[in-house]
Structure formats: structure tokens, C-alpha cells
Amino acid sequence: MNARPASPRRRSRWIMIPLRILLGFILMSLLLVTLYRFVPPPVTMTMLLDANGITKDWTSLDAIDPDMARAAIAAEDGKFCSHHGFDVDAIAKAAMHNASGGRIRGGSTISQQTAKNVFLWQGGGFVRKGLEAWFTVLIEAIWGKRRIMEVYLNVAETGIGTYGVEAGAHRYFRHGADRLSRAEAARIAAVLPLPKKRAAVAPSGFTRRYGDSIAARIGVVQRDGLDACIG
Where is coiled-coil annotated (predicted)? Predict the structure, then answer.
């Protein structure tokens, strides 16, 4: 006995379900991104999954020494003020490097890292990268560069169980982020890629050399106006 073909109404219902899910996701993400344009993100998935606990203290960008943002640009994303969320050249170079073998190198911008840190989870995969791209486009359009930098400096992991540069400054240097010296800002920036394995206090080896390199580039960022979009 042959099965009866699905009626047009039933087929239409099955088509509408994924469309409604997609529309709901789009609306929810738009609402969330718009909310965080004005309200600090209370917690992130990375924080919730951190077995070491959460130490953080939201601080406005105006209360963070300008050299900290410059250090982040120098270390993580030299084209932060000129791209629209994605650095195509950096992505292409990272892909070529990774294809040749050796240590994996990323090509993510500060905008992409902020989107991942606030809305998603750590790790790879095409699904997460696709969602990261979507949220990157949204925060670039809705937040703007200054807000992206402010959120980044408050949610980035700066040490074991430590999030944001204010908490990082107190952890390493016993004072607030408003009093960071250029060398201190550079050391925190040097820790960002591997915050559980690097320390900004008395760094040695690669971390010390990398921090010194970032400190030297902070002056270039300021001189060339590479931080103009957050001034």
C-alpha cells in the first residue's frame, strides 16, 4: 500500500518551522546586541564555564588609561579603526600559515573576539565561526568601535578566573586600570592570548619579549592615529 503524499498544508507547516526559528534567532540577537549597546553584559558563557570562578569589575572606557586600548590594538588588531569587523589580509595570512603546518595562528580581529566572548563559546567549528561572523556584523553596525573596545577590555580574560583589564590591573599591579603605565598595559595585552598560562608580573621568556614589543608599538599606534576611532 503506497503512503499518502503530504498535503500542501502539511508541507507548508514543515517549511514554516525553520523559518520561524531563524526569524526568532535574528530578532533575539538584534534585541540582545542593542541592549548591550547601553548595558554591560552581566556574564558570558566563558565566565560561567570557568571552574576558577569569576573576578571582574566593569569599568567605562573613560576610566581606563588610553594606553590599554592602544596596547590591545598594537597586540591584537592594528587595523581595528579601519576595518568593518574583519581583516581579510590577516585571515588570508593566518590560513596560509596554518596550511603550512606548525603552531596554529588566528586572524580574528578585536571585533570578532568581542562577539565570540560576549555571545558565544570558546573553541572552533563552522557553526560557531558562522555565528561569530553574524554577531561581528551586528556589533560593528549597532555598537561602533568605541563600544566594541570598551566591552572587549571588560570581558577579555586577563588571568586565571580574572576578566577585564580593571580586575587584571588589580591582580597584577595592585591598582586600577586608570593608573596603568605603558609597560603595564603592554604586559596585560601580552597575556590576552593565553591568560591561563601567562602572567603580567615578572614575565620571562616570550611573554617578556612580547610585552616589550607591544610597549614599543603603543607609541606607533598613538603617533599614526590607529586609535582615532575610540578617542
Answer: none
